[in-house]
């Protein structure tokens, strides 16, 4: 049984990390979705860097929840027949025990040098933005994927893995492409499809849905 699991911000919400579109409130007076863009970075890099510095610090204060841990147990059971793809930039899947995680939208814990293309680990101690350790240019930005940028390793997801028996989406609004289209690739390959979400998403083409908190629905589905 080949299973693809796609996760979104909702799986980390109960760990204490806000989602994007149901976040109740603004960050320093800004909608988070308008800060996480190349246009915002070009206009005010310090503002955007501060947004990511704070999210990196918040991530260090929280831990994985029962839903992350359940997916790690599923990996132990299915091995290479599970493909876990996350849109999240946090590392809660890894800290919950998952070993193979594809981060489509990058990682908070990495910096990308726009001058020489090198990648580096990025901890809170790098928040004062030193130059790139590889080339010396002051050109490090968060290694995350903003609108209009190409998600990481899409070819690795969109070829064999989506030809699966079951496609499961957990805690994602399904509004952001290319991830939003993965359910259609999977349906085209004959897969069963299941969606686990707190609310009824605005768009849904899944054959089965379960409403509820990820910390309830994911362990219940995995066991
Ligand atoms: C719970 C819960 C609980 C809450 N339990 N559930 C085709 C059509 C139209 C547009 C496009 C298209 N193709 C491309 C585009 C453009 C664009 C796009 O999609 N625009 C749309 C807005 C229409 N896409 C892009 O630009 C992408 N690039 C691209 O397509 O390049 C071309 C290309 C592709 C492939 C190959 C070659 C070329 C890039 C998209 C980058 C998205 N970046 C962000 C920021 C990342 C950095 C950061 O984290 O700061 O990614 S935006 C933001 O949205 C973030 C998320 O990963 C992403 C998805 O959000 P998610 O995870 O779904 O969160 P929410 O908040 O939306 O939903 C939370 C859900 O959880 C809700 O449903 C709740 O109900 C639920 N929930 N608590 C269970 N306890």
From TrEMBL:
Annotated residues that bind Zn(2+) are located at 113, 116, 132, 135
PANTHER family given in the database record: NAD-DEPENDENT PROTEIN DEACYLASE (PTHR11085:SF4), NAD-DEPENDENT PROTEIN DEACYLASE SIRTUIN-5, MITOCHONDRIAL-RELATED (PTHR11085)
Q: Where does the chain bind NAD(+)?
A: 8-27, 87-90, 171-173, 214
Active site, renumbered: 105 (proton acceptor)
* Keywords, sorted A to Z: Cytoplasm, Metal-binding, NAD, Transferase, Zinc
Question: What is the top EC class of this enzyme, as a single word?
Answer: transferase
Q: What is its main location?
A: cytoplasm
Name it. NAD-dependent protein deacylase
Gene Ontology CC terms: cytoplasm
Q: Where in the cell is it found?
A: Cytoplasm
Q: What's its job?
A: NAD-dependent lysine deacetylase and desuccinylase that specifically removes acetyl and succinyl groups on target proteins. Modulates the activities of several proteins which are inactive in their acylated form.
Instruction: Answer yes or no on keyword Aminoacyl-tRNA synthetase.
Output: no
Q: Which residues bind substrate?
A: 52, 55
Looking up SUPFAM superfamilies in the UniProt record yields: DHS-like NAD/FAD-binding domain
Q: Which Pfam families match?
A: SIR2
The UniProt record lists the EC number as 2.3.1.286
Co-factor note (free text):
Binds 1 zinc ion per subunit.
Describe the family membership recorded for this protein in Swiss-Prot or TrEMBL.
Answer: Belongs to the sirtuin family. Class III subfamily.
| Occurrences of domain Deacetylase sirtuin-type (ranges) | 1-223
